[in-house]
Design goal:
The chain is of the alpha+beta class. The chain contains nine helices and four strands; from the N terminus they run E-H-E-H-H-H-H-H-H-H-E-E-H.
Amino acid sequence: MSRTVVRVYSDYKSPYAFVAVRPTLALAEAFDLALEWRPYTLRIAEYLGSVDDRGPHAWRRVRYSYMDARRYANKQGLTLKGPKRIYDGYHANAGMLFAQKHDFFERYHWTVFERFWKHELDIDVPEEVAAVVAECGGDAEAFKAYAEGAGRTEMTAVIDEAEAMGVFGVPMYVLDGELFWGGDRLDLLKERLAERQGG
C-alpha cells in the first residue's frame, strides 16, 4: 500500500512556516505520510506593502503576526527574532530544491530555518547559504551555479504550478488537490487524513 502524499509549501522567511515544521513532521509520523516540501517565495511587499509605504493598519498587522508566531515558537522552545528587513529568500529556497536533489534536505531545512530566525544567517547572501549547503554535506560551488542557472527556471516552474492550484501563502498543505493554509489548519488536515484512512 502506497503512502499518502501531502505537499507542503514553505518559505524560510515566514515565521508561521517555521513554527509549523515540527507539528507537520509529527502529523506525518502519525499518519505515515510522504511529505513533498516545495518552496513558495512570498512577495511580501505585494500584500503588506514596502516598509516605506505601510500605513498604521499594516504595521499593526505585522507586529501582531510576529507576536503571534512567537507564542507558537515559545511553546516549542524555539528562538524567533523579528526580521531585520524585508527579505526575498530566493537563494535559501533554491537551496531547498538543491538539497532535495542531493539527499541532505532534512538537515538543510532545519538549519536554515533555525539560523535565520536567530539572526545567524542572511538568506539573501548566496555565500552564506552556500556555506550551509557545504556544512550539510553538499557542494557549495555546485549550489551557487545551480542557484544562478537551472534553479531560477525550476523555482519559477514550482511557483507557477503552486499558483495554478490556488496557493498564495505558507505553510500551505495540499492533499488530493484540497488546500489547507496555515499550521492552525493541521487539525482539519488531520480530519481529512483520518477520513481517507477510514478512521
